[in-house]
Amino acid sequence: MRIAIASDHAAYELKALLADWLRGEGHEVADLGTNGPESVDYPDYGYRLADAVANGSAERGIALCGSGIGIAISVNRNPACRCALVSEPLSAKLAREHNDANVVALGARLTGIDMAKACIAAFLATDFAGERHSRRVDKLSHPPVLENSR
């Protein structure tokens, strides 16, 4: 699978370990940075990752920052991306199965390497269930027009 991975400075070490592990598992990995401890802005890397998934150069994405929250928000600004912040494998599995998530976010300050690998393995091994979930996922890209409630 073609996987893009990106992080801010708080998660660059975890990113490097995960990228090496994914390559060892036979995946093609595009490391979109950052590659050092110098302070950077997580949205820059979230947007870069989202673009790689949206333009098809990556089938899946892995977004990392200190908490996972900020980079997940930035990835989700791209309407072609559905990024789920996860902290354990069941959430990662359900993000794929029910929500057709194409990006998973993790917090390097909150998640150890073994748990991160377990989450990513579940995310990559799970297919979208479709059926009743398709209608709901479609609404994520095409929200209904709501009447003004005033």
Automatic annotation (TrEMBL):
It holds the Pfam family LacAB_rpiB. Gene3D superfamilies: Sugar-phosphate isomerase, RpiB/LacA/LacB. The active site is at C65, H98. D-ribulose 5-phosphate binds at D8, H9, G66, S67, G68, I69, G70, N99, R109, R132, R136. It comes from the Bacteria. InterPro entries: RpiB (IPR004785), RpiB_LacA_LacB (IPR003500), RpiB_LacA_LacB_sf (IPR036569). SUPFAM superfamilies: Ribose/Galactose isomerase RpiB/AlsB (SSF89623). Keywords: Isomerase. One of its GO terms (biological process) is carbohydrate metabolic process. One of its GO terms (molecular function) is intramolecular oxidoreductase activity, interconverting aldoses and ketoses. Transmembrane segments: none annotated. NCBIfam families: PRK05571.1, rpiB, rpiB_lacA_lacB. Belongs to the LacAB/RpiB family. This is Ribose-5-phosphate isomerase. It comes from Sphingopyxis flava.
